[in-house]
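Table 4 source record.
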Amino acid sequence: MSDTAECGEEVDCEGLSVSPSERLDFFGFDEFQYRITHDTLERGEFASDILLPHIDYPSMERLLANSKEAFDARRIKVGRPYHIITERDSAATPVAMIYEHDLVNYSILHLKDSLYGERAQREVEVREAQASGVVNSSLYLTLTEQGLSQALAMEMADIYAWTIDFYRLQKGDRFTVLYDQRFIGDEFIGIGDVKACMFEHKGKEFKAYAFEQNGKQDYFDEDGEGLRKAFLKSPLKFGRLTSGFTMRRFHPVQKRFKAHLGTDYAAPRGTPILSTGDGTVIKSSYTKNNGHYVKIRHNGTYTTQYLHMSKRLVNVGQAVKQGETIGLVGATGLATGPHVCYRFWKHGKQVDPRQEDFPSTDPVLDTERDRFLAAIQEYEERLQNTEKRLYAGLQP
């Protein structure tokens, strides 16, 4: 159902009133030349429900057939905004329908003359930002207290997933980060790339610099060594380590001491469980003790397993990538609460992955080293300036 005129149903040349859609640029349509009606897709509503009041059925079929690459009528989502553009004539001649896939991407279905669709993007402005902080409890809370995007914590966790255990951050750990913010007009729509970061953990500095070579951007330390390693430190981005790998642990369900050849991470039910490395699913099943579980062979040396899922999202034989969601945290099988038991095999023997030293990915190429050193020198100066402002008690 359309909003009232006061809430942005129509844009009139006499006294523009568009409060919920004020952020829109009307996608190239002059609001003084056309009348623009704003609405959102409701449950049970289809593309045909939106289009048929404005064009006849044969025209609609031809339009959707001509627009397959730009607009898939089967994939529109409840709650997404759409807009009907009409002429300012007595017949309100339909001109176009605009459907917003997200804040950036949209489709225009042309309803006048040639019936076709096109996909486009709104203009996004990228602005560089800086942040510094000292961790008192968690990186997530430290950033939140500064009013910074929660997604920045996720990005930093991704970058350092192979080098810093974010489940064991200590009070007093500190960080400085340069990153991009994305805007449409003056509206912040999310963060972009993290360009450089320094994270001090347990008194040791870990630096990360974004650098592109061979057409691919990755993160490297100050020596040009890649930060990505063969396996993620954890199958969860955020959570709480509750039980480590040990040969003697008192089992909370069986009430006896036994070996615990896995690492438990507690998290809310439904939290995504990630494959810690590239590989192939060799088991996706259910047993009385394991509950729903997935097992992945990564190569001839390493295999991982993920237990107690509420839901499995991959099948046997499926190839998975590092960081891909393979299931959701649950408490199935022999479990007292929602968590994932992460198990790791090396040459067929279960080992503690937290004690393994995995090799890094390819370093900066010799042919790219001069360009890399020039880039990180510039980043380093900006990181230091940001850090100085922190210690001067100023907001970066």
